């Protein structure tokens, strides 16, 4: 069943989009990630223009993060004060990111920038997760205790300290603001929630307890991605509602299945599976950038100039 997407200006099979939404929803439920960093490249592969994929995927992340954060509120695992500091940085970063996105779009370079960002970030994160998971699997087989994190780092010596009671921290607001800004820029340029960067930063850089990290990250992601979607919709007109709805329906169903699968696998096995998927998507994107296309020139049909 083919469906015409008015903003993307392409016809795509509706069941293919539902399936993609479902697959990413399953991953979201299994691994606790928004899935945007996998969904956006998958949309590139089926012919959706990168500018439309980025703006529309940000829209889908708002809904999936909202359903996730409600569960964390019930468990009281959301640090609202930390989330607000991250949010202030995130909104500033998203505004900067959209300005940069629009500038590159006017120069005709935005597709290349988005794809290059994905190759670099997926390569780094997939590689780090893969080796870290291998180490954890070896350690658990050897029966050794998990490595302890250092309690005091340079972050504890910075000024403008604030007490975050839910996280049990008394640290400077500067590092969370910087993390928020970086994630906001990525949300605008790559159409991701940024959880795959924010979660490790909150654990290893800020020293937050793992149980409050996911909920706090989702709380910040909702507002930053909603703000990003609004900016893209009003300045670029690149949010495709038909595409967003199909991905959303698939994602909601997939997330329920993924949550059930996730409870049956060990954390190390889940992480290594996710790392392998991230590296596979990164490799495919890099190949697309390096291999010469079959048609060097394409003639635009739309535009009305």
Q: In a nutshell, what does this entry contain?
A:
The protein has about 300 residues and is mainly alpha-helical.
Architecture overview:
The chain is mainly alpha-helical. It has one domain (2-290). It contains 10 helices and 4 strands, in the order E-E-H-H-H-H-H-E-E-H-H-H-H-H. The chain has helices at 14-31, 36-45, 50-74, 80-107, 110-142, 174-190, 195-205, 210-235, 241-262, 267-290; strands at residues 2-5, 10-13, 161-164, 169-172. The strands form 2 sheets. A two-stranded antiparallel sheet has the order 1-2. Helix 6 (174-190) runs antiparallel to helix 7, helix 6 (174-190) crosses helix 8 (210-235) and helix 7 (195-205) runs antiparallel to helix 8. It is globular and about 50 Å long. The two termini are 31 Å apart. It is found in: Cell membrane; Membrane. Belongs to the 4-toluene sulfonate uptake permease (TSUP) (TC 2.A.102) family. Keywords: Cell membrane, Membrane, Transmembrane, Transmembrane helix.
In DSSP terms (H or I, runs of 4 or more residues), the helix count works out at: 10
Number of strands: 4
| Main pleated sheet | 2 strands, antiparallel
Relative helix content: over 70%
- How would you classify the helix and strand content by structural class? mainly alpha
Which regions have little confidence, pLDDT < 50, spanning 5+ residues? 296-305
Q: Give the averaged pLDDT, no decimals.
A: 75
Broad shape: globular
Secondary-structure element pattern, one letter each = EEHHHHHEEHHHHH
Q: Span from first to last CA?
A: 31 Å
- Beta percentage is 5-15%
- The count of domains is 1
Supply Rg: 20 Å
Strand order of the largest sheet: 1-2
């Amino acid at each position: 069943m083919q469906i015409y997407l008015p903003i993307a200006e392409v016809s795509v099979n509706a069941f293919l989009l539902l399936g993609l939404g479902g697959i990413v929803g399953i991953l979201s439920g299994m691994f606790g990630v928004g899935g945007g960093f996998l969904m956006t490249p998958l949309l590139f592969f089926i012919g959706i223009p990168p500018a439309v994929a980025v703006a529309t995927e940000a829209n889908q992340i708002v809904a999936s993060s909202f359903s996730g954060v409600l569960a964390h509120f019930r468990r009281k695992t959301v640090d609202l004060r930390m989330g607000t500091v991250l949010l202030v940085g995130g909104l500033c970063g998203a505004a900067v990111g959209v300005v940069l996105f629009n500038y590159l779009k006017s120069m005709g370079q935005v597709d290349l920038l988005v794809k290059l960002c994905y190759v670099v970030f997926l390569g780094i994160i997939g590689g780090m997760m893969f080796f870290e998971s291998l180490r954890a699997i070896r350690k658990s087989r050897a029966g050794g205790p998990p490595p302890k994190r250092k309690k005091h780092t340079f972050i504890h010596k910075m000024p403008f300290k604030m007490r975050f009671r839910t996280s049990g921290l008394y640290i400077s607001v500067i590092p969370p603001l910087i993390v928020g800004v970086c994630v906001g820029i990525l949300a605008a340029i790559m159409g991701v929630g940024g959880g795959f960067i924010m979660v490790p930063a909150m654990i290893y850089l800020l020293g937050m307890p793992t149980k409050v990290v996911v909920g706090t990250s989702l709380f910040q992601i909702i507002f930053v991605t909603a703000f990003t979607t609004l900016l893209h919709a009003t300045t670029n007109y690149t949010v495709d509602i038909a595409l967003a709805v199909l991905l959303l329906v698939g994602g909601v169903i997939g997330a329920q299945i993924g949550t059930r699968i996730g409870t049956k696998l060990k954390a190390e096995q889940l992480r290594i599976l996710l790392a392998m998927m991230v590296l596979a998507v990164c490799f495919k994107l890099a190949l697309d950038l390096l291999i010469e296309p079959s048609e060097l020139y394409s003639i635009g049909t739309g535009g009305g100039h």
